[in-house]
Design brief:
Elements lengths: L25 H8 L38 E7 L6 E10 L2 E4 L4 E4 L5 E2 L9 E2 L1 E4 L4 E3 L10 E3 L4 E4 L9 E4 L9 E2 L10 E3 L20 E4 L12 E3 L1 H10 L7 E6 L7
Parallel strand pairs: 1-16, 5-6, 8-9, 14-15
Antiparallel strand pairs: 1-2, 2-3, 2-4, 7-16, 10-11, 10-12, 13-14
Length: about 270
């Protein structure tokens, strides 16, 4: 579907349960953001995560392939490849150990679930370990992120045309780059704000591989009830803003996407 890769895969009623309060471990927040805690939009801190809590499983502690300089990690996981309901967890490293930063957050992924072999036009979310792109984007003003931020204007596209030399990159153009390319400024509310997940782009690959897939973002739900996507990771607006503000390029954050059964690959 041209120009609608992420907006409207509404396959279920909701994202499962109401989003828990963001934030938890003071130690983790201090390591990850240099702030005393990670507050929700209402200013209420979650008491549910204790310092160093590793139950029911500190998933970040299972990871083996993160760069040594990485001090923040997002884990997006689920119970099977086919399930498009997922959970997003955030961790920060302090004194060589990973600490949970927030309560687990409800998320949605591609309508056909996870894939180890994502291809262009197939609504799956690619598994792997990825960086956060060097620029964050959005149709609204900068919500206070640490990354460079570009507010979208008419003519801002994500090039998703496998035959283009600019495949899988931001492009400002007066004409549609073709293929599945997205008119980013028209994607509301999904692209109120978003971060780029570096699937099929640097630094994961030197040059995007044609037809391997493009435009994988972390963005907000397209509907108030929450909805599956065409490959991106989606969360509520409130949770997205908190995550984007927390991410710090100086701490080399990574995002790990995988069914839980295969998390030990990474």
């Amino acid at each position: 579907m041209f120009g609608m890769k992420r907006r409207t895969f509404v396959l279920g009623a909701a994202a499962g349960v109401a989003a828990p309060a963001l934030v938890g471990s003071t130690a983790a927040a201090a390591a990850g953001t240099r702030e005393s805690t990670w507050w929700t939009a209402t200013g209420v801190a979650s008491p549910t995560i204790k310092r160093g809590d590793v139950t029911p499983g500190n998933r970040a502690a299972q990871l083996k392939t993160l760069p040594p300089q990485t001090q923040q990690v997002i884990i997006v996981g689920g119970d099977s490849y086919s399930n498009n309901y997922a959970t997003l967890e955030t961790y920060a490293k302090e004194r060589g150990r990973w600490w949970p930063v927030s309560a687990p957050l409800p998320a949605r992924i591609g309508s056909k679930g996870f894939s180890d072999n994502h291809t262009e036009g197939v609504p799956t979310t690619p598994t792997g370990v990825y960086s956060i792109g060097p620029t964050m984007y959005g149709n609204a003003a900068n919500p206070g992120v640490r990354y460079p931020y570009h507010r979208l204007v008419s003519g801002d596209w994500w090039n998703e045309n496998p035959t283009s030399s600019l495949y899988n990159s931001f492009q400002h153009s007066t004409t549609n780059p073709g293929g599945y390319s997205e008119a980013l400024w028209q994607e509301v509310p999904a692209y109120t704000h978003f971060a780029v997940i570096t699937y099929n782009m640097a630094p994961n690959v030197a040059t995007p591989v044609p037809n391997a897939g493009s435009g994988i973002f972390l963005h907000e739900f397209s509907t108030s009830s929450g909805n599956a996507t065409a490959g991106c990771v989606a969360v509520s607006h409130t949770n997205l803003v908190a995550i984007l503000r927390w991410l710090n390029p100086a701490l080399s954050p990574r995002i790990v996407i995988s069914p839980y059964a295969n998390l030990n690959r990474y």
